[in-house]
Amino acid sequence: MSEGQRLFVGGEWTEPDGGHYPVTDPATEGTVGWAPEASPEQVRAACAAAREAFGPWSRTRPEERAAVLARAAGVIRDSLEPYADLARAETGATAGTARAMQVGVAAARFRRYAAVEPAEWAVLPQINEAGPMGGAAVMGALAVRQPVGVVTCVTSYNNPWANPAGKVAPALAMGNTVVVKPAPQDPLSVYRMAEALEAAGVPPGVVNVVSGRDTAVGEAAVACDDVDMVSFTGSTSVGRRIAEVCGRDMKRQLMELGGKGAALVFDDADLGSAVAGIGTTFSFYSGQICTAPTRVLAQRGVYDRLVERLAGYAARLKVGDPGEPDTVVGPVISAEHRSRVESYVELGRKEGAVVVTGGERPPLARGFYVAPTLLADCGNDMRVAREEIFGPVVVVIPFDDEEEGVALANDSDYGLVDYVWSGDVARAFRVARRLRAGGVGVNTVGRNMEAPFGGFKRSGVGRDVGVYALHAYSEVQALVWPG
To answer: Taking every annotated instance into account, which residue ranges of this chain make up the domain Aldehyde dehydrogenase (predicted)?
Structure first.
């Protein structure tokens, strides 16, 4: 594969019809490798291969499917360092993030779904009186999870390991087959995942990977008649388009879309905890993460101190080569995205926001770097407060009391993950239950990886993670009989 990565279709490594395109290292602007450009016909061939493999794979014993996932987790763990090196080069993530949060999480997700769980539940018997449908009877019932069929998995660029693993592992565990369409910016890691699954013994056609920069590649993977479900992580605008296509054919959808996470910080909050949690926005994936608390709502009694401490936190972060052990903030994914983030900072200035720290391009010779930026004195009607910037930029908005804070937090098109910091735990949980978001962190930005994950409003459709992912990639069938 020295001349370029090949597609993975029907268990075969296939030369792409559209040739190859360069994958760029965001830190050096050099070429990491050459990704394949599939044709729509090759995408449809991948979907057909998945359809052909679905019958045998769905009838395979769950224990056998689980064993394949367990072996894949082992292959990934054994190759953690080279896989992490590639992920770092493709995404610009720091070395520690690439190891632990990208490749490490992917291995953990395959391991998680290697555990066989019950797929059927008894339903309480029902007594039916005699009527047009027959005599009186006691009716028993069983609810059974069945695989959906062929699942197209369209994955995001910010984590080319954990994101596809979070789709592929539960989908395979449930007996589905998959066609993975990775983000065009960093698809090479997803092909390494396919190699790991191949080494683990996944049968031909059960997993297919097709990539390309042309939008026709993604459209073919979504619209193909062989596809029963689409699982997508990405922008709300693209999610809308996918939903339209799925709606025409009544295809199942799982959508994890944009976010503009509100972080409510009350006067009695532990500021150290709040600053550390919110500060991850500046550093983790360089702010390219939909769960980031990018919209800080600070009660007036703590507003000035919070702004000061967040500015100090951001100013201390080392921006630079993600391969260096002390680097905290790496580059964003591309020159185009850097320009987009910078344009939002300039827009914030024009809207009246105060740039407390950042706002200038770091003085580095190469790489797509953006300085961690804090915008204060913002209003919730500003575009920088309403639109997803997807970079190391935090906006701060003041509020007076609990009612106003909740109203501001809910005044958003998004509702993925919000946060509450308060020393009054009862108030924190009371406020959390009033927030229109799929998840709420109470005095933390940490995650429970068995808790359901997904968004309200324009942040998505459906829930996954833990057992909820098994529900997401299954249909529920009712079996009914006379008792």
So the answer is: 13-478
Dist. CA 97–CA 186, nearest whole Å? 16
Q: Which residue has the tokens 């100013």?
A: 315
3-class DSSP state of 25:
coil
Q: Provide the pLDDT for residue 2.
A: 45
Which CATH superfamily is 262-452 part of? Aldehyde Dehydrogenase; Chain A, domain 2 (3.40.309.10)
Nearest to 163 by CA among 21, 290, 41: 290
Domain boundaries, the chain: 7-257+459-482, 262-452
Kindly state the helix (H) or strand (E) to which residue 255 belongs, with its residue range: strand 252-256
State the helix-helix crossing angle for 188-199 and 62-78, rounded to 10 degrees.
120
- Count other Cβ atoms within 10 Å, centred on residue 136: 9
The per-residue pLDDT for range 432-459, each reduced to its tens digit, is 999 999 999 999 999 999 999 999 999 9
Mean pLDDT across 421-431: 98
Nearest CA-CA partner of 414 in 379, 449, 390? 390
Tokens of 184: 């065009």
* Residues 173-210 pLDDT 10s: 999 999 999 999 999 999 999 999 999 999 999 999 99
Element (H, E) at 471: helix 467-472
The continuous run of DSSP H or E covering 23 comes out as: strand 20-24
Superfamily of domain 7-257+459-482: Aldehyde Dehydrogenase; Chain A, domain 1 (3.40.605.10)
Q: Does residue 272 register a pLDDT over 80?
A: yes
Q: Strand pairing of 150-154 and 229-233?
A: parallel
Say how far apart CA 296 and CA 285 lie, in whole Å.
Answer: 19
CA atoms within 13 A on the CB side of 264: 31
Residue closest to 239 by CA, chosen among 225, 226, 254, 224: 254
Distances in Å between the Cα of 270 and the Cα atoms of 72, 274, 375, 399, 443 are: 42, 6, 21, 17, 8
Determine the distance from the C-alpha atom of residue 453 to the mean position of all C-alpha atoms in its chain, rounded to a whole number.
10
Active site residues: 256, 290
Asked if 35 and 21 count as a contact pair (C-beta separation under 8 A), the reply is: yes
Give the pair of three-digit tokens for residue 88: 């770092």
Assigned token pair, 373: 């930026």
Is the confidence at residue 1, as pLDDT, over 50?
no
Tell me the residue ranges of DSSP E strands in 94-222.
Answer: 120-128, 137-147, 150-154, 177-181, 207-209
Rounded Cα gap, residues 226 and 221, in angstroms = 9
Spatial distance between the Cα atoms of 330 and 460, rounded to a whole number of angstroms: 28
Written as six digits, the tokens of 299 are 């009660």
- Indicate the helix (H) or strand (E) that contains 21: strand 20-24
